[in-house]
Amino acid sequence: MPELPEVEALREFLDEHLVGKEIARALPVAISVLKTYDPPLSAVEGATVTDVARHGKFLDIATEGPAGRLHLLVHLARAGWLQWKDPLPSGPPRPGKGPLALRTALTGGDGFDLTEAGTTKRLAVHLVHDPRDVPGVARLGPDPLADDFDLAAFRALLAGERRQIKGALRDQSLIAGIGNAYSDEILHAAKTSPFKPTQNLTEAETTLLYEAMRTTLGEAVERSHGLAAGRLKAEKKSGLRVHGRTGEPCPVCGDTVREVSFHDSSLQYCPTCQTGGKPLADRRTSKFLK
Fold this sequence. Notes:
Layout lengths: L3 H14 L5 E6 L19 E8 L2 E8 L2 E8 L4 E6 L14 E7 L4 E6 L7 E5 L6 H4 L12 H9 L5 H6 L9 H10 L13 H22 L7 H8 L18 E4 L4 E4 L1 H4 L16
């Protein structure tokens, strides 16, 4: 799943390649992709892209045109991606054939495709007058890399929480942009068990967690800076220390990276670095919370 660093890199890429260009057509190919109907998607045709922003994991393509100022909001979900094409294929896209979900063509002949692999279709596109008209954007918590999101703000967020820290980090209404992969990476860097209750964090542990979050995400954004959209997935995978590396040696201590599986996801961690050497049992029965 694309998370804050990859979506930020896509934002930078689109800011360079899209701003100032005119949209010729926006063609939904998968029936499930478009989540709004008023204004219609055709309202962006003839509009000029004025800005590309990011809200958590949402891309926000702002346009100005015959229908006024509109925002094309994109959430790539678990298996979605953006592919820049220069030039775009000349023929019309064929609905129901392959992963293509939406094609946006520019008047210069270039543009981008939104694609989604697999059979579970969650990629979402909204066309709205205000980004906060999208419920997923309206409920977002603060951006963890924002200049004003300091340690005091982080402490205040966690003060009222009573749940496992892994779930808290992934809650978009608490902190925007962190998903399964980077929560694993942050907790590994902070030497914290994913199952540790937030209310049991000491002041020192909270400080370490905050610093790990800012450093992990900041370094991931920096690694992705300037990369073409097609290279971002490989860069993300190469930079991960524990997530997706079950059975491999921890790059810090050499212990074997372990996994806890759930019905639709899994987490990875290092026992030596994070749980005092104790393997975690299933989330529902584990007693190793320190």
